[in-house]
Structures are given as structure tokens and as C-alpha cells.
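To: structure subgroup
Subject: Chain for Friday's discussion

All,

I'm putting the inputs and outputs inline so they're searchable in the archive.
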Amino acid sequence: MLEHQIVELLFRQVAVPYHVNVERTRRWRYQAKDTPMFMDMTILDECRYLYDWMPTTEMVSAGFSNIERQLAYRFALDGVSKHRRWYNSEYFFGTAVIDQFTEPFEAKILHPRSDL
């Protein structure tokens, strides 16, 4: 794992992170008298399984020396990062295990707004 990924995971282990679930996000547009209005319902996921399974800061070097554990984390991070790929590419940069165009693992995109 890259150093910035480990630091980010350690920070998120003690915080309460929420990740956008792009597939479940809903978007609408409507007309209010004269003004066009836009509304998004953003669904958030805690992904606690990822952070609860992670070793504590004292044990992180031993925890990540195991290749099977590293691979499990990389696949979990890949899944989380696929939801953020086009929404916000800053988090979990460089975590791809499977490329973003391989079905059913492609990067998720926000759907266009539907009219109410």
C-alpha cells in the first residue's frame, strides 16, 4: 500500500467517515414558478467493515506485512474508490486493483437529473 493510503485509513479509523454511494444517489429537477430548481438526495455509507477490520496504529506495520490482508484492503478500497472516481478523485487515489472500465467493477457516475 502507498503511504498516503495508510495515513488516510488510520485517520478514518478514529474518525466517522462517510462515503458517497453514487449508485444510490438520486437527482431531480423541477420548475418553481419562474425559477428552475435542482435537488439531489445523496446516500452515504460508513463502510465500517473496512475500518473496524483494520489493525490499531501500534499494530499497523505487522497487520500490513501480511499479503492476504493487504489484498483484502486493496479490493475494499478499490470498491469504495469506484464510487468516488468521477465525483471526487482526491480520496483513495491510486487504489485501483481492477480498471474502471471492467464490468461489473466500472467507476460509478452520477445519473442525469430526472424531471418531477
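Points worth raising on Friday:
The two ends are 45 Å apart (CA to CA).
The first helix runs from residue 3 to 14.

D.
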